[in-house]
Amino acid sequence: MxxxxxxxxxxxxxxxxxxxxxxxxxxxxxxxRYFDLLVFLVEHRHEAVHRRDIFDRVWSDVVVxxxxxxxxxxxxxxxxxxxxxxxRYIATVSRHGYRFVCADIVEEPDGDDATGVVAYRxxxxxxxAGVPSSPAAAAAxxxxxxxxxxxxxxxxxxxxxxxxxxxxxxxxxxxxxEAAELLHTLGTEEALRRLGTRTHHAMxxxxxxxxxxxxxxxxxxxxxxxxxxxxxxxxxxxxxLRRAARLAAARWASASAGAGxxxxxxxxxxxxxxxxxPASGAPxxxxxxxxxxxxxxxxxxxxxxxxxxxxxETVARSRRSLVLGTTGGIGGGIVGFTAQWLVRWGLxxxxxxxxxxxxxxxxxxxxxxxxxxxAGATGxxxxxxxxxxxxxxxxxxxxxxxxxxxxxLALTLAGRPLVGGTLHAIASAAQGSxxxxxxxxxxxxxxxxxxxxxxxxxxxxxxxFGAGLAMGLTxxxxxxxx
Length: 482
Hints:
It contains 17 helices and 10 strands. The chain is an alpha+beta fold. A hairpin with a 4-residue loop joins strand 2 (12-15) and strand 3 (20-23).
């Protein structure tokens, strides 16, 4: 079997097998996913590659915004010293995608006997990747940044001015982001020292904090212990929410739909068992009623927890478990308290029934459990939201289901039944109801709806909710053609 090829163009050598990009004998630091993108474009250099195909190939395990691809291409161009206005390597194909346009490319063997790569890797990196070192390289970055090449004695100041500007438009925000990336390549610690407390330093620090995750060799950018920590944290959250708002909305809707479908399945199964149970007076008509009730409760709860997790995912890159557990709990708690108030008010106003119904604390516990389970089952996807495939997706759903099932079991043992137990309590208070769950309790072995029945039904509800929520949350949306 012949070894995988490597590609030589101008002063660059690209080795997919050794996962290295060399420029004039020096290894260029590049983020692994950006390296995969460059390889993909070079391998398909005879065609214009659609953005949809890039997402499916390079970001197959995560969902990212269009700006993530634009940022990746921009970073690769800077590494190659390319210019988007007069591209030598990567050209933008309007309303379609990108194309690798360099014609002088040589494909050659890259086996163990191949010369060049090992020797090149022994040469230390003399110039940080992305720092303009010539007029040609400087042309690849915006004008406000390109002055770095013309003012070698102090390359920090023009970049600090750009990163601390009051960006109001998406284009200005992208320029600030690029300035932050370049500052990392010059030296994160020195950039922070020089930034100090100048005007808009909180926004600048937030941009540096956000870009450090995608910039090779970037140093830490602390928030607490630095000037204006609250303003910096606020700016960082706002920055990430703006960039990921569309993804979060799609994530929330999918989570709600997944939990709703799980509720439909659970309600229909419970209604069928109730209708077929010995000594049960419930008609088969109870099946669609309970299915609709389960679907509504699942979708409502999934909307709250899913919204919390979607927001948490878009803002958290460190302490992810803590953030997702917190945001999931907050989302579940808000929905739970809302449902608790509405049901109590509705029963009292319409039927004169006063039933002790929970909801707020239950939603808080289930949401926090879902967030912790989801965080533990998925790795942090830098710049995107995880979308595991196949068995990995089922594993995530299983972990979240177990976490929610255990939380639901703890709630029922503490005397806080979920949907099934609440439905039984309402039916017991209402005369002539046909949805008493006593026949199900007798199937289990209890004479009436007791703690064992409540625990089994409650934990089952929690597991179904967690599984549906996770399956919806990890659904990868279909990419749309431009």
